[in-house]
Amino acid sequence: MSDLRTRFGAVLAIALLPILIFSFFMVFSYGSPSYIIVSIFAWAFAYMAIWIATDRLVFLPLRKIKKASDQFASGNLKARVGDLENAPDRISELGAAFDRMADNIVEREERLVDNLREKETMLREIHHRVKNNLQIITSLLNMQERKLKDPYSLELLRQTRGRINAIALVHRGLYEGHDLGVINMRVFLSRLLSELKTGLGVDPNKVQVKMDIEKLYFEPDTAIPTALFIVEALTNSIKHGLQVEAHILIELKNVNGRVKLSIVDDGPGVEKGTKQKTGKKLMKGFARQLSGVFSAENTAEGYRVSLSFDRPKNTRSLTQDAR
């Protein structure tokens, strides 16, 4: 603060305030000797100028960068900072760095999507070819069946064909589904039941099969032994336990982290001491493959075959549908 005398003899109070951060000065003059009032106005205007300049040159570009980053994080991959007009060099460099990073992320994600799509195409083709090869094997068995006359041999051949069809249906469900890694057990078991009834020559007027299947998704390693277990249980019920008219109930549920499968028919059941047949041996083998527990018993409802095993980590329930 100093006095300045003009050529006309007037005395002015001069206030010179440097705004070093932006490399300019603010000069205030007032004809009154009241230095305090001049100083107050000088500081007030100076801070207002600093605030406006800081908001325009610093805060506004930073808000623009934050807005772009928030949009990008929320899924808008087209969000960019763009040109930061009049912003300091460091802030402009920050905005440009964000744009480069976003471009690299989008490019890398596009490559990953392309690779995943190619992988899915290959997996679908593999499952499709496996299913076709299994169908060829089934066709060869059908040709062989025409040459057989022995009822026992024919029965064994049909059971083998049913097992092969069950595996083929798993691969069909995989390449036709939305998720190549898992199979919808409710849809799959409906198809399997239809195939089995046709293959075993079940009369729908005499044998009624009902299902109570929770919406679960299994990987092939779990779905195949589960399907084969059901094939053996149903084959035993239809061919060995049922005489005239009968009802069969298939249940598959997730109970407290364990998968519980049961097949109940109202046939006469199995007498104690009966020699263990191939179907029961196979069911025990499938239970071991799943690290599960197998049981077969006569109950008030009929003959019950059960299998329980720990739910696989990737098993999804009704509230967690596949993609």
UniProtKB/TrEMBL annotation:
Keywords: ATP-binding, Kinase, Membrane, Nucleotide-binding, Phosphoprotein, Transferase, Transmembrane, Transmembrane helix
GO CC annotation terms, alphabetical: membrane
Cited Gene3D superfamilies: 1.10.287.130, Histidine kinase-like ATPase, C-terminal domain (3.30.565.10)
Pfam families for the chain: HAMP, HisKA_2
Compartment(s) of residence: Membrane
SMART domains per UniProt: HAMP
Sequence intervals crossing the membrane: 7-28, 34-54
EC number(s) given by UniProt: 2.7.13.3
ATP-binding keyword on record: yes
Reaction(s) the record says it catalyses: ATP + protein L-histidine = ADP + protein N-phospho-L-histidine
MF-aspect GO terms: ATP binding; protein histidine kinase activity
A Gene Ontology BP annotation from the UniProt entry: signal transduction
Record domain HAMP: where: 56-110
SUPFAM superfamilies, A to Z: ATPase domain of HSP90 chaperone/DNA topoisomerase II/histidine kinase, HAMP domain-like
Entry-linked CDD domains: HAMP
Coiled-coil portions: none
Entry-linked PANTHER family: ETHYLENE RESPONSE SENSOR PROTEIN (PTHR41523:SF8), TWO-COMPONENT SYSTEM SENSOR PROTEIN (PTHR41523)
Protein's name according to its UniProt entry: histidine kinase
Protein species of origin: Litorimonas cladophorae
